[in-house]
Amino acid sequence: MTNTTGAADTASSASNSPADTARFRVRPRTEADLDACVRILATIHEQNAYPLNWPSDPAGWLTPRSLLAVWVAEGDDGEGVIGHVVLSRSDAGNAAAALWSDGPTAVINRLYVDPAARGRGVGAALMTRATAEAKSRALHPVLDVASTAPAAAALYERLGWTLLAAEVEQEWLPGQWVKLRSYAAPTS
Predict the structure, then answer these.
(1) Which 8-state DSSP code applies to residue 182?
(2) Which of 151, 70, 80, 159 is nearest to 118 (CA)?
(3) Which DSSP symbol is given to 117?
(4) Could you tell me which of 2, 85, 88, 182 has the fewest CB atoms within 10 Å of its CB?
(5) In terms of Cα–Cα distance, which of 47, 23, 4 is closest to 120?
(6) Residue partners of 95: CB distance under 8 A and separation at least 6
């Protein structure tokens, strides 16, 4: 598998601090990465309420049964893991997959970036890697995002993803209904 390397766009940056020029790479996640992935996820849950419901087994949540592939973004300067994404088989619970009618799908999920690494293109690089893998398997990438996550929706729209539905209600836990936005990757 090819690694994806990214760098911040320093042309729009007023300073030349290390964070502005920091580099990273996207690589397959290993078992050794799981503790760091869970730590970052806990920080994101505390700051951004993602995931909405904290899983009883966070490492298991990051490794769903429907998993096809999983990657992390890793900082090049000893930063360690700074982002995560999963590509999964579609199942009955995926609203976007149910809305897509032009062939088989795969779901991109469990995408997150360490708050300290945001704004460097990490999320876009992880999305690009997962999208390429889905397409290499002749599957069309789709995803669902809680309507309470406008920054995530903005990323998908900047990447050219098509909004399939702006407000799909789905029951996540008994009595807990969540409004989702459903997206499909560009067809080209």
Answers:
(1) E
(2) 151
(3) G
(4) 2
(5) 23
(6) 144, 165, 168, 170, 180, 182
**Strands 4-7 and 105-113, bridge-based pairing:** unpaired
Q: What pLDDT is recorded for position 31? A: 97
Gap between the Cα atoms of 2 and 63, Å rounded:
21
Confidence of residue 2 (pLDDT cuts 50, 70, 90): very low
Mean pLDDT of all residues belonging to the chain = 88
**In angstroms, what CA-CA distances link 71 with 6, 41, 107?**
14, 14, 14
Interacting residues of 121 by C-beta distance below 8 A, sequence separation 6+: 6, 7, 8, 9
- Strands 140-146 and 105-113, by their bridges, are parallel
With DSSP H G I counted as helix, E B as strand and the rest as coil, what are the percentages for the chain, rounded to 5?
30, 35, 30
Average pLDDT rounded to a whole number, residues 171-188: 91
Smallest CA-to-CA distance from 6 within 16, 85, 18, 21 is with: 21
Question: Is 70 in contact with 28 (CB distance < 8 Å)?
Answer: yes
- From the centroid of its chain, how far is CA 57? 19
Instruction: Report the distance separating Cα 103 and Cα 111, nearest Å.
Output: 23
User: Does 111 have pLDDT greater than 70?
Assistant: yes
Secondary element (H or E) of residue 62: none
CA atoms within 13 A on the CB side of 43: 13
